[in-house]
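ugh ok fine here u go
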Amino acid sequence: MERSITQATPGDGAPASPAAGPADDLSAGATGAQQENVRLAPFVWGISLVVLCLVVFIFTNPNRQNPYIHFVWQAQAWLDGQTSIATHVAPSATSPGDSWYQDFQPILDASGSDTNRGDLPFPPLPALVLLPFVAIWHLFTNEQLLATIFAALDVGIAYWMLGYLPIRQEVRQLTTLFLGLGTVLWYAAAIGSTWFWAHIVAVGCLLAAIAFALSADREAAEPRPLANEIAAARRLAWPGWWRSAVTVVVLGVLGELLFKLAEAGTSAATVAGLGVLLAVGAAILALAVSGQRGVLVPLVAVVVIVGGVPAALVLGAQDPEALALVDAVVLVLVVGLVVMARVRPQSIDRAVTAFWDAMARPETRQVAAGLLFGLACTARLTIVFGFPFLLLVGGSSSWLRRGLLAGAGAAVPLVALLVYTYAETGHLFNPVYDYLYQQEIVAYPFLNYHADWSIEDLRYVPQNLMIMLFNTPIFSPETLPYRSDQLCQLGQARGIFDVNCPIAIPNPVGNSVILSSPAYLLAPLAFIPALWRRLDRVTVGAAIAVVAIAFFNLMHFSQGWVQFGYRFSNDFAPFAIVLVALGANRLGRYWWVLMPFVAASIAINLWGAVWGVMLGW
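structure:
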């Protein structure tokens, strides 16, 4: 198979391979300026793609107003010292009011009366990301504008991630453009309401997790003989010997105890304390498996940034004196660093060097990949089923070692999610989903929900698979979805974007992911090496992740209406674009086949995003 002939340079997110690189195209007498231009080219392309997508996202929906801002309300509740959100709030000078009417469970008092507060079913990370903005703008935070910005950043992360694959630079650019403008990420950015904001946050974390795993495993995308890979998988040597084995057993016991205490209705403080022990145990496991203290660097960074900063914001909102104390501590730290930089600059240099040395180690990057993967799961739960990718790809010599390191990283945010959910609802798994299921069965009979089926049920797979793969737009509609106004006066010609007489409109229940993003059809081409009994771990891992995540989404009673396309595809899109990129690149000189598929995907998503805005979805 032909390997990429144009790779990004080190530091840009690509391996420094002697077999491939942009500098390969230079003659022996090339000047230093030419070499510098070659190194800058991928960076310029990445920034350009981010800016292009940001502009498109913003201008697709200039009037970014949407009543569904549950995560803004959740962040404000935290600042107010509550886990539940306020409900039935009238518009005022300090509040836009909660004109949304769904996806929360009212909290009742002992007499059964509504307390005007409610619990949300969603994992907390999307609200946590909004917290710094809500601390400034409160309930008037423009979640829709932030959705466009963060979705554009997702495009940049995707470009960085794809730089670690052995693909042509042109394929890297086109695949990044495909994610930004050829998938329903565009629609999610344009709408930016509750559910789409969660997808945008999850996609960014998952792309970064894949990037760290790829950066730690430079040969994972190189096809190898199947016999060799199978033999390697059969060789099982427990990493870390008895230390890691004992740690795994202790973690299992603590995990079982956590569930038992939760079933017994013990206090949230006790469950939280046990959660801290589990997180410490995960760190010990990473140390035992790797034998390197550097693996603690990403764990400490996540605890400080994802845990410490929001805690400081919430504490400051509750108590001005506490905020003053936090400010004083930060000021002391900054002044101390400045003084240290002047008095003992070599100490700062050593610390920075030690940090980058630790992050450069494959084992540390694998732990970081696990952490980011776990964070993605705290935005979209079904992403957890993509974990097999980290068993096959990442910084270690065996699938078990990779899995333990990534699992140790992922355990920290996942345990935090369990503890938070218990503190909020009294259950480790959010019961609001089941409440909403019962409500929607009655409210939306036309969606074919079944009262005698569970919220996740294998029997939903066939009907949901039809939505995912085969649902088409509504052609020559007589009325708009969920409206009674008659369309098209006698003799009126239909138009592509004519809201009064359209040729077709998106099906609000969902549209085929293949019809919405036809470039996904190139993903199976990643398996071309299998024709010669060769395969690579990235292709297998990404394919397993796509299928596993999609399958468990298909078991869910709802498929994400009202929408254009199939919004649940965002959950596996980061893995799917890896397959698209590898598939196009493995066509060798015919890689350009990707171009018309991407162009078609962009045109279709332009149509869908515009119609979603026009219909007020």
